[in-house]
Design brief:
The chain is an all-alpha fold and about 500 residues long. The chain has 21 helices and 2 strands.
Length: about 500
Amino acid sequence: MGDLATSPFVRLELIPERAAPVKVTGVVGFLRTRLFNSPTNILLTIASALLLWFTIVPAVKFLLIDAVWSGKDRTACLAQNAGHTVGACWPFIQAKFAQFIYGFYPEPERWRVNLTFLLAALLLLPLLIPRLSAKGLNAGLFFVAFPVVAFFLLLGGGLTGFGVSWTAGALSGFADGVSELGQKLSRAGEATAVIGPLLLLLGKLVGLVGWATSGLIWPLLWLNGQIHAFARPVWADLAATAVVVSLILFILNGGIRTGWRALVVSVATFAGIGIVIAVMGLDRGGLPIVDSGLWGGLLVTLVVSVTGIVSSMPIGIALALGRRSTIPLVRFFSVVFIEFWRGVPLITVLFFATYMLPLFLPGNFKIDGLVRALIGIALFSGAYIAEVIRGGLQAIPRGQSEAANAIGLSWWKTTGLIVMPQALRHVIPGLVNSFIGLFKDTSLVSIVALFDLLGSVHAAFADPVWATPTTLFTGFAFAGMIYFVFCFGMSRYSLFVENRLNAHRT
């Protein structure tokens, strides 16, 4: 023991008490470790608190505390009648709410808009919930069947034919156009002395192509004539189209041995189309036509944004793959297309599609103004999506494709099953960022006489019944809240999908 007591390695007195460890949990710990852990963070915290105080407090006071909640006209939102400083004039929103949602859509027909919104929600929600099954069927209904049903619900009208009639009309128009071109070239060759023989020969060759096309489609034209001889040509055309398409799919998928599944799917699809035609009465003229010029409000915003988002994805994927193609012509076309649309402002695209495009179309060929705007937005957005997807494709190592080639996968299977899913997973933030930007850019359609949500809000300001000093700010605040709900929802859901698909990295 004596040796132990005299050993320099043994402490004989107690260690002095040390200060308690800094608390890192709870509110105090959060403030200490996140907001006030350094002089720089202290300054940033104070600046942020002041910014919030000077923005959120006045906004809450305007929207809630000083707001007017009931009234029949502008007098309720005047300071001398309210007895205090008036903030938001919510009676204005209540009075114009239908205009903000439907625009000038006829009131007796607004049930069609409500039904379209309900169908969209019922088909979209199962796609957004990962645990629900039958994603393939649900996706087919939402991306293929729903747009057609929504078109006839919102616009109205019926069908005068189906696949056979449409195909016969398109091919007949093509044949007539080729024959007319051949005649014009022949006449130009007869009137020109220098290159007249060449133009004459070219005109005869083009005319021969038109004559041959007319001969080839003669059976189809005969079948079209027989169909229209029936009392109900739409149903006869549907039946003929179903028979032809089902037989083609049955043969292409292996015939008697392996083609039964494709045959059943085809028959079931045409049966569903027949049910839709019968329920909506498309063979009897359908619903009353509502011109797209009467659409407005949130309806136009959702139609333009959803159509642009859904249609821009396949366009962007095709262009991204085309820009990486080894075929020079395909790569050149993709590069030119992308750079052209990215180099033109969206306002110019909308203006050209609405006012200039009809000047280049034949006199008997007309496209609805909303459809022209939708086409322009889809092509414009597709060019930007293509570059986002191309960035994801470049992030995939070459070893992925080489491994797929080693096990005998074709280019299509390699791209569809291995490369593209990984590329899309990498660029989820960029895609959703483009979608959010497109949703907000729908307000630009107001320059081509289409009243989206913001345009409808702005048009409501012209009503003298609700002309008050705060009406303008109330309308913009209401529109901003709706935009925020949709954009924030897309942002949070994309974060959920990103975390779920990248769970293997955590």
